[in-house]
Amino acid sequence: MRLDIGIKTAYRLLPTAYYDRTARMFHALPDKLHSMFESPIVQISLDLTSLDEAIEMAQVAVAAGVDWLEAGTPLLLAEGARAVETLRAMFPGHPIVADLKIMDGGYLETEMMAKAGASFVVVMGRAHEATVRYCVDAGRAFGIQVMGDNMLADDRVANARWLASLGVDVVIHHIGYDERRLVKGLSPLDELAAVVAAVDVPVQAVGGLSIAQAIACPSYGAPLVVLGAPLVIAANDFKPSGSDLGSILREICSEIRKTPMPPRVNR
Fold first, then answer.
1. Pick from 132, 147, 135: which is nearest to 201 by CA?
2. Which residues form the domain of 62?
3. Average pLDDT over all residues of the chain
4. CATH number reported for the structural domain that contains residue 194 in this entry
């Protein structure tokens, strides 16, 4: 698919059916975030280096029932804010996560992603406290939610608790790509229950999940399920992983939504 028609033209070409209440409620009423997680939500990680391929995968994913779209780090490095702008133009009814992995310049980078059309931006739990706080401040100012990522923390449970105390809206419990390639057998499920118990914000698990593990995430109390490498992205070359992606995603989405979630504990 060619992407030379421009953002404004893309908006005009979208059918009215794309415009639903989800995104408008999301941006206008951020205090409703918790109510959005009363049932599982499926997010696809577009960890690709080509915007054309990312848009094609997003179209397949949306048709298969995926709820949220993530502009993955490789895509943002390759295409910049244009990736978020294009996803927002073409999928206005779907929340968009900008996985920027912010380590510094928190206010500016959060503002940039908000103005590009992102619904969420990711700040790292290894960043300075000031950076996390500036991301949260910018999130409140510009109507974007902030995800705090505990990847590479010495104590991921404590780091998740710290991020939540600073005001992030979602905690990402994350085993990194390089880390799990070097240290075999690591899984975010190992500490997922402990992270969920430690915080009063929604949690998602990220990092090399198998299909069965992804489907199981809601049963741990982590309602936001991320599908990425190796399920839908080839782990070594950051390309779409197969030709039957639509059928695979449709089945995974169906099974995730059947997974019962434990009652949420009010702290």
1. 147
2. 19-258
3. 86
4. 3.20.20.70
pLDDT of residue 38: 85
Tell me how far apart the alpha carbons of residues 149 and 171 are, in angstroms, rounded to a whole number. 6
In a domain, 263, yes or no: no
**Listed range (82-96, 103-117, 157-171, 250-264) with the worst mean pLDDT:** 250-264
Angle in degrees, CA 103, 105, 107, rounded to 5: 115
Return the amino acid letter for 205: A
pTM across the whole model? 0.85
DSSP letter for 88, please: H
Contact in structure between 267 and 200 (CB atoms under 8 Å): yes
Kindly state whether residue 4 falls inside one of the protein's structural domains. Answer: no
How far apart (Å, rounded) are the C-alpha atoms in residues 213 and 235? 17
Continuous segment of H or E residues that includes residue 226: strand 224-227
- Whole-angstrom CA distances from 52 to 56, 122, 255, 267 are 6, 23, 29, 44
Q: Which of the pair, 48 or 1, is modelled with greater confidence?
A: 48
Specify the amino acid at residue 57.
M
Beta carbons within 8 Å of 182's beta carbon, 6+ residues apart: none
Instruction: Reduce the DSSP state of residue 148 to 3 states and report it.
Output: strand
Place of tokens 């992804």: 214
- Please count the structural domains in the chain: 1
The token duo for 41 is: 């939500």
Q: How far apart are the first and last CA of the chain?
A: 48
Distance CA 196, CA 150 (A): 13
Query: For helices 51-64 and 81-90, what crossing angle results, to 10°?
Result: 40
For residue 229, pLDDT over 70 is answered with: no
